[in-house]
Design goal:
The protein is an alpha/beta fold. The protein folds into 3 domains: 181 residues, FAD/NAD(P)-binding domain, CATH 3.50.50; 103 residues, FAD/NAD(P)-binding domain (3-Layer(bba) Sandwich), CATH 3.50.50; 48 residues, no CATH class. It is 24% helix and 23% strand. It is built from 8 helices and 19 strands. The strands form 5 sheets. Strands 1, 2, 5, 6, 7, 8, 16 and 17 form an 8-stranded mixed sheet that branches. A hairpin with a 2-residue loop joins strand 3 and strand 4. The longest helix has 24 residues. The chain is elongated and about 80 Å long. The chain starts with 10 loop residues before the first strand and ends in a 5-residue tail after the last strand. The N terminus is likely disordered. The protein binds flavin-adenine dinucleotide. Flavin-adenine dinucleotide binds next to helix 1, strand 2, strand 3 and helix 6. The site of flavin-adenine dinucleotide has 39 residues, from helix 1, strand 2, strand 3 and helix 6.
Length: 385
């Protein structure tokens, strides 16, 4: 029946980015409703601070008569991530390559992780530590163009002759005339229109920035930094080599309604898809991408799609006693998500444990079943190449 070979990988699904889209996506990979559902394993990689753009004081999830502040929403999303013990790794994803049946995610640190599916929830750009300096020298273009002259004058005042660094991209040329007209007193104005902000420096307020561009890594002394999100909203900074999911003319990832990109096993959610930049959209995209990646990974492991009863009905005659879990294959490797028997170490197959202990496979399956239905355990199983 199975089209598999033994062997390990790091997580069924890797989520790139811990903004609202990524946090919602990772939660859904693990929080699959239904008594007989088997959760998948998931891991998040984040380059900056958990929460993504929600870290900026002015980001809220709001309706005309209600609002969740960004930090409040991040805290709620993170409480679920912690409850489900979903690991978050601090690193920047720089590549995604196919390695046989797996996707290999390359990190800036030089490490690599392997998975069955990847969700790109990378927003407009990788964040560093800039949100910690918001209104302490760092400001951001948003809120409508009529607001920009006042914003630039505020940046000039923050800089007070020590220099203003504008971090954007080639679309920052749109700001040229405004910068000339409204930054008197700022000191030298440097525009980083290709490259990356690596770190904001300064004890309480901005005093310098470490950047990387065509000239390499360097430190620019400045009293203020303007993050040109107006430019990033026109074309995102998504520099991940390897697989090449289709993009639109502006550089945003294109997806279908289930958040699948053109690359099998690669999904996308949130601002990186170039739709309306809104927390509510990012959360909804994240849920859809999470469920789609879950279904994809499940099907790779067991050669049939899972039922997602709470979200998508099945058009079929239902059996008298519906049991939705696959019979655990003897070559699968059980993995603890929250708790499980002590022999479950993430390397030992059912088969190997049966040989070691003389137990029958059915006895072992019976032992694991309550842990699986309570989503405390999943199994890894590597598809054949
Ligand atoms: C100033 C401002 C105010 C806003 N106000 C509102 C508002 O009032 N209401 C509202 O609904 N929306 C608002 N928004 C929009 C909302 O914040 C975004 O739409 C939402 O945060 C998008 O979520 P996301 O998860 O797609 O992206 P992000 O929040 O940008 O998160 C993406 C994450 O991915 C990480 N990342 C990127 N690349 C990599 C990589 N290669 N490796 C590892 N990690 C990576 C980033 O560091 C980041 O943490 C505002 C946005 C801004 C900028």
């Amino acid at each position: 029946m199975a089209d598999v070979s033994p062997g390990g990988y790091d997580a069924d699904v890797i989520v790139v980015g811990a903004g609202p889209a990524g946090l919602a996506a990772a939660t859904r990979v693990r929080w699959v409703k239904g008594y007989h559902a088997m959760a998948c394993s998931v891991r998040i990689i984040e380059s900056g601070t958990v929460g993504g753009l929600l870290r900026w004081g002015s980001c809220v999830l709001s309706g005309p008569g209600w609002a969740y502040k960004g930090q409040e929403l991040t805290d709620r999303l993170m409480a679920d991530i912690e409850r489900l013990r979903i690991p978050i790794q601090h690193d920047q994803v720089v590549s995604i390559h196919r390695k046989g049946a797996l996707l290999e995610v390359g990190l800036a640190s030089g490490a690599a992780l392997r998975s069955l599916a990847v969700i790109l929830a990378t927003g407009f750009r990788p964040l560093a530590n800039e949100s910690e300096y918001y209104l302490r020298g760092v400001r951001i273009t948003y809120k409508g163009y009529e607001h920009f002259p006042r914003l630039l004058r505020a940046c000039a005042k923050d800089a007070s002759g020590r220099g203003l660094l504008v971090v954007g991209n080639e679309k920052t040329s749109h700001l040229k005339a405004m910068l000339r007209a409204h930054t008197s007193g700022a000191g030298p104005v440097t525009v980083l229109d290709g490259g990356e902000l690596l770190e904001v420096m300064g004890e309480t307020h901005v005093v310098a920035a470490k950047v990387r561009d065509a000239h390499g890594e360097r430190i620019i002394d400045c009293g203020a930094i303007l993050m040109d999100y107006n430019a990033f909203e026109l074309t995102p900074a998504l520099h991940v080599t390897g697989v090449e999911p289709a993009r639109d003319l502006r550089g945003f990832l294109t997806t279908d309604g289930l958040m699948r990109t053109s690359e099998p096993g690669v999904f996308a959610a949130g601002d990186v898809t170039g739709r309306y930049a809104s927390t509510l959209v990012a959360l909804g995209d994240g849920v859809a991408a999470g469920l789609s990646a879950y279904a994809y990974a499940f099907e790779r492991k067991f050669n049939h799609a899972p039922r997602l009863f709470a979200y998508a009905a099945d058009d079929e005659v239902l059996p008298v006693k519906p049991i939705d879990l696959p019979v655990l294959p003897s070559d699968c490797v059980p993995l603890i998500l929250t708790k499980g028997p002590s022999w479950v170490d993430g390397c030992t197959t059912l088969e190997a444990h049966a040989l070691d202990t003389g137990r029958s496979l059915d006895d072992i399956r019976g032992e694991l079943m309550p842990f699986i239905t309570s989503k405390a355990i999943t199994v890894h199983r590597r598809p054949l190449e």
